[in-house]
């Protein structure tokens, strides 16, 4: 992870770590933890076969406490091992509720949930009590409890937290701000929803009375004042009792009320890269292997849901209604934007304590999760013989869209299956940005986007209107006041298809922001990189985006290939084109799911150029240069190789053949001739 994403802790950030946040737990875990511990000691039950599904899904913190009682310092590893084993079965995973398609109010707090998301930002490390001591007020009995995978330290009414205990353990965890996968298409969302077996119900309306305290590192000087007790108002225990200690605290509390009031009137910016996105953002807290995560990674996190309203409190507020002695009220006011960004209401931005995580190669629900696994390799191998027929179906669909233009359909198909597979210095190998020329109006872009959104897993239409270019933020920018990364339209995950509609550009003047945005798009197309703005410097982030540009004439943007559209049938309205496409789908002449599977598999097919074909290709280049150097430049030769590779894998061939090479040369020759003729008629 680049260092710029994990900046050093400022004094304000350090003070924010030493805080109380009061919140309530929902279950008394002591009895079940003891029962689990006793059974394991007696050897009557294997740790990985108990408790049942209801327990590990609905009461995961009981499992954590039980494993903590047995393993103590190695608790984190054992918890991950336990839940990983439980989730090995695909059916078990489908019983885990998903934040992506389940309303948050239907999910029970402190239960196991999953979240398919993109890491949008990475916050500073957070310190918390990984283990803490609880003392029974009557008997004086001491109990150690685990603070992992939760925000709240808990004890019953007749217990107290011993913050001065030498046995308390402070640990750190990393917080990621995650958003639903940008540009994810509706058919993908629907497929994941249908695959889910879980049933959710309204959370229980009763809870036992519980003392609550944040697990993040507290005041420098522990207080023995009365801790707040939640009133019996439902699951979240939103109301708490406060105790005033002196007159000075009253003044501080008044200042705190002013801060809280300001925060409550400020709308929460969920920081989605694309406007109009649906689904909750989530603050994911990770306990191990921090360095394995990168900005813009697509991850499925499985962990414990935390949604207590107290998590949105001003961090520096302690449970007596005043501020921490270590933090001055002025400093608190100064950091109001950072506090608002890092402590949003859990009803909008829930917290998820990750136990298991999977970095996703793709989000295609029709494919195995990993194509590198034995199951994935077997699946791809089984598809190879069928790729040619599926390709023909896709080509027919695209030809219908392009009014019978078979050559343009061939190039559009190559664009859809393209993907960066390697980098040589600054060159991204495998990218294939296509410019479709001859699109008269933006209605065609809408029709094209409508078809793409039915085929690929991630697709976004960006009209290059003057207003969009001048007003949108395309590249992410660091906001040091709020200590967060403000997202931009180009902060997208790998293999997102971006349709750039140049027909929407009207006459007018680009302002400074418009010029920067145009340059950013050009750099993303040419080099597959986006420069994130960190105010005092720019940091380069590599991308793997599939760009398609539609324009009336040759685009002002760079591209790897341009082709004018030449209709072979009488022009028809956009509605007529859409009707024809839907007729092909509904008649069964094309199978959408087979095409979706095809487009998911092709970018992962391994390709090589044999020594024999290398000699043939090199000789053809030499001969073409001798005949006419102007007709075979290095750029032309590179384009031939790119098209040959994409054409080979699109028909399921892992190496270049003489037949495909000759077909590639004919395609490129016809395309160049079409470009020349189009230019001469303008």
Automatic annotation (TrEMBL):
Highest taxon of the lineage: Eukaryota
Comp. bias (Polar residues): 221-234, 257-269
Keywords annotated in UniProt: Nucleus
Residue segments, region Disordered: 219-272
Main location: nucleus
GO molecular function, one term: chromatin binding
Gene Ontology cellular-component annotations: nucleus
Pfam families given in the database record: MCM_bind (PF09739)
GO biological process, one term: DNA-templated DNA replication
Keyword field contains Protein biosynthesis: no
UniProt-listed InterPro entries: MCM_complex-bd (IPR019140)
Localization in the cell: Nucleus
Membership in a protein family: Belongs to the MCMBP family.
Name of the protein this chain belongs to: Mini-chromosome maintenance complex-binding protein
Native source species: Patiria miniata (Bat star)
Lineage: Eukaryota, Metazoa, Echinodermata, Eleutherozoa, Asterozoa
């Amino acid at each position: 992870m680049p260092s710029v994403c994990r900046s050093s802790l400022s004094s304000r950030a350090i003070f924010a770590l030493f805080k109380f946040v009061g919140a309530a737990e929902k279950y008394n875990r002591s009895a079940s933890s003891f029962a689990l511990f006793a059974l394991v000691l007696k050897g009557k039950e294997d740790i990985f076969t108990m408790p049942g599904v209801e327990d590990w899904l609905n009461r995961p913190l009981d499992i954590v406490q039980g494993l903590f009682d047995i393993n103590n310092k190695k608790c984190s590893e054992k918890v991950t091992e336990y839940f990983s084993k439980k989730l090995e079965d695909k059916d078990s995973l489908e019983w885990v509720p998903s934040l992506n398609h389940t309303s948050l109010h239907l999910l029970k707090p402190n239960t196991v949930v999953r979240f398919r998301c993109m890491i949008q930002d990475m916050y500073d490390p957070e310190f918390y009590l990984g283990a803490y001591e609880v003392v029974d007020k009557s008997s004086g009995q001491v109990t150690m409890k685990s603070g992992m995978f939760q925000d709240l330290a808990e004890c019953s009414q007749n217990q107290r937290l011993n913050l001065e205990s030498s046995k308390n353990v402070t640990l750190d965890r990393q917080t990621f701000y995650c958003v639903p996968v940008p540009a994810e298409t509706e058919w993908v969302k629907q497929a994941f929803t249908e695959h889910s077996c879980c049933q959710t119900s309204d959370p229980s309306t009763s809870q036992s009375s519980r003392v609550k305290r944040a697990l993040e590192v507290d005041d420098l000087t522990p207080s023995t004042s009365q801790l707040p007790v939640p009133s019996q108002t439902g699951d979240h225990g939103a109301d708490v009792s406060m105790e005033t200690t002196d007159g000075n605290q009253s003044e501080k509390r008044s200042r705190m009320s002013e801060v809280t009031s300001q925060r409550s009137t400020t709308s929460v910016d969920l920081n989605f890269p694309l406007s109009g996105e649906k689904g909750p953002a989530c603050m994911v807290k990770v306990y191990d292997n921090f360095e394995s995560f990168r900005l813009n990674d697509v991850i499925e996190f499985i962990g414990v849901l935390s949604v207590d309203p107290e998590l949105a409190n001003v961090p520096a507020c302690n449970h007596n209604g005043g501020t921490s002695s270590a933090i001055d009220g002025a400093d608190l006011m100064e950091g109001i934007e950072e506090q608002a960004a890092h402590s949003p209401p859990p009803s909008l931005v829930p917290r998820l304590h990750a136990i298991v995580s999977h970095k996703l190669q793709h989000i295609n629900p029709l494919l195995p999760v990993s194509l590198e696994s034995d199951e994935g390799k077997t699946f791809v191998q089984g598809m190879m013989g069928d790729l040619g027929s599926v390709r023909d179906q896709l080509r027919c669909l695209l030809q219908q869209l392009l009014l019978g233009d078979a050559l343009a359909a061939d190039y559009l198909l190559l664009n859809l299956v393209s993907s960066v597979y390697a980098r040589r210095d600054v060159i991204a190998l495998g990218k294939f940005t296509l410019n479709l020329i001859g699109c008269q109006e933006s209605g065609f872009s809408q029709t094209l986007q409508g078809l793409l959104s039915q085929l690929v897993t991630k697709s976004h239409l960006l009209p290059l209107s003057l207003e969009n270019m001048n007003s949108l933020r395309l590249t992410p920018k660091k906001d040091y006041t709020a200590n967060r990364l403000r997202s931009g339209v180009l902060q997208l995950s790998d293999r997102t298809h971006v349709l750039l509609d140049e027909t929407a550009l009207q006459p007018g003047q680009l302002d400074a922001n418009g010029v920067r945005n145009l340059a950013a798009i050009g750099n993303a197309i040419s080099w597959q990189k986006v420069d994130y703005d960190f105010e005092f410097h720019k940091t380069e982030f590599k991308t793997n985006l599939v760009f398609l540009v539609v324009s009336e004439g040759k685009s002002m943007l760079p591209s790897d290939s341009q082709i004018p559209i030449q209709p072979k049938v009488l022009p028809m309205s956009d509605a007529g084109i859409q009707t024809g496409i839907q007729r092909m789908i509904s008649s069964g002449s094309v199978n959408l799911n087979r095409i979706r599977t095809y487009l998911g598999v092709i970018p992962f097919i391994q390709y090589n150029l044999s020594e024999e074909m290398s000699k043939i290709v090199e000789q053809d280049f030499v001969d073409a240069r001798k005949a006419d150097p102007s007709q075979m430049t290095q750029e032309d030769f590179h384009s031939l190789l790119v098209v040959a590779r994409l054409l080979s894998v699109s028909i399921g061939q892992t190496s270049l053949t003489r037949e495909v090479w000759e077909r590639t040369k004919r395609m490129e020759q016809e395309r160049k001739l079409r470009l020349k003729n189009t230019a001469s008629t303008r």
